[in-house]
Design a protein that fits this description.
Layout lengths: L3 H12 L9 H13 L5 E2 L5 E5 L6 E6 L12 E2 L4 E3 L8 H19 L7 E6 L7 H4 L10 E8 L4 E6 L1 E10 L3 E2 L10 H10 L4 E4 L2 E10 L5 E2 L2 E10 L2 H21 L4 E10 L2 E2 L5 H12 L5 E4 L5 H7 L3 E10 L7 E3 H15 L4
Parallel strand pairs: 3-6, 3-7, 7-18, 8-17
Antiparallel strand pairs: 1-2, 2-6, 4-5, 5-19, 8-16, 9-14, 9-15, 10-13, 11-12, 12-14, 18-19
Helix pairs in contact: 1-3, 3-9
The structure holds zinc ion.
Length: 362
């Protein structure tokens, strides 16, 4: 049975270990230690993600969370606000995103062992670097995973709060090569890369394109000194849409525009790379993750509340690897702010839902 005191203590213990993205060695070691203490063969893959497996009956289920947290996230002091809410002391985030997800996974395993419960084979993957671009999930060792369905425990709100739709995400890099020259003595010999980059930027998709499609030029760097014609500029941007066709057509438009800029500026050289950072998805009836989760939620008296989310999670990356992933709430609110808090009864509900999922062996 899910044990409130035990899961709360595990949560507090994990929050006590600083784990900013890129600095996860201590928390990874602790998660590995706890999984081993439960008798699982925990190990890290080459990217430092923590994996473990518990044997069972039927179709395996992947339980996933991420171990890293955002700034300001050093020296977090969890503080009780009444009997059911834990906050930070107001100077840092709390880290319920996603220590609550990690605590849920540990508690579900512990409870299964204690109850000698029949479960599906449970695969665990706890990622690093989720908050800085899903780095751990992108570099995960998928040979360690056989599950075709994943529960990603990393959404705000109660477990019925489900990411029902997430966008397709393209990222791009553009290099503009010009030619350097002294700006005062012989500017006519130069090709100003920044000016060409400006032409490029003005034609790239930016802002809200429609209700489910956005574009952004996020950074531009270039030039070295005030008095030289700049020979280099670099642009980074992204595009998102809930509809694959829409983001594809934005990419095509951007490429056409860059080709035009190239034609107008024969002395410059433009290089660009467009990459699908992660695929989007829409939970629809017949999706194995949605069918499994929605059924269990209803059995437990909770009405699934899927809603679109504009950001990506490890779930998007899993889907790109053929694993039907669904992202559920674990009781956290105001993520990535100093006002972040955890509602313990909702974390417990999340643990009960995940427990019911792994115990659904038929
Ligand atoms: Zn998160």
């Amino acid at each position: 049975m899910i044990n409130r005191d035990r899961i709360v203590q595990a949560f507090l213990d994990l929050v006590g270990i600083d784990s900013l993205s890129g600095d996860e060695d201590a928390i990874a070691a602790e998660l590995e230690r706890r999984l081993r203490a439960l008798g699982l063969d925990a190990a890290q893959d080459a990217a430092g993600n923590v994996h473990a497996r518990r044997e069972g009956t039927g179709e395996p289920l992947l339980l996933s969370a991420h171990m890293d947290t955002v700034e300001p996230g050093r020296g977090i002091k969890p503080t009780w606000d009444g009997p059911d809410i834990i906050r930070s002391d107001g100077t840092t985030i709390l880290g319920a995103d996603n220590k609550a997800g990690c605590a849920v996974i540990l508690e579900v395993l512990q409870s299964a062992i204690e109850d000698r419960a029949a479960t599906r084979p449970i695969e665990v993957a706890i990622s690093r670097g989720e908050e800085v671009g899903l780095v751990g999930a992108q570099n995960m060792d998928y040979n360690r995973i056989s599950a075709k369905v994943a529960i990603v425990i990393d959404s705000g709100g109660p477990p019925s709060a489900i990411q029902g739709q997430a966008p397709y995400h393209y990222v791009y890099d553009i290099d503009v090569h010009g030619r350097a020259a002294h700006a005062g003595l012989e500017p006519e010999k130069g090709v100003p890369a920044i000016t060409v980059a400006a032409e490029a930027v003005l034609g790239l998709p930016q802002g809200r394109i429609d209700f489910e499609t956005t574009g952004n030029v996020g950074t531009i760097h270039g030039g070295l000194v005030r008095n030289a014609v700049p020979d280099f500029a670099h642009i980074e941007g992204e595009m998102r849409s809930m509809e694959f066709e829409k983001v594809e057509s934005l990419v095509a438009r951007a490429r056409d525009h860059l080709a035009e800029v190239q034609t107008r500026n024969p002395g410059a050289r433009l290089e660009h790379r467009f990459t699908l950072g992660y695929p989007g998805y829409k939970l629809e009836p017949g999706d194995p993750a949605a069918d499994l989760l929605f059924g269990v939620l209803r059995e437990l008296g909770m009405e699934p509340d899927p809603h679109p989310v504009g950001g990506g999670t490890d779930g998007n990356v899993f889907r790109g690897h053929g694993i039907a992933a669904v992202v559920i709430g674990r009781g956290g609110y105001n993520q990535h702010t100093k006002d972040e808090y955890l509602v313990i009864p909702e974390m417990l509900d999340c643990a009960r839902v995940v427990e019911a999922l792994v115990r659904k062996v038929d």
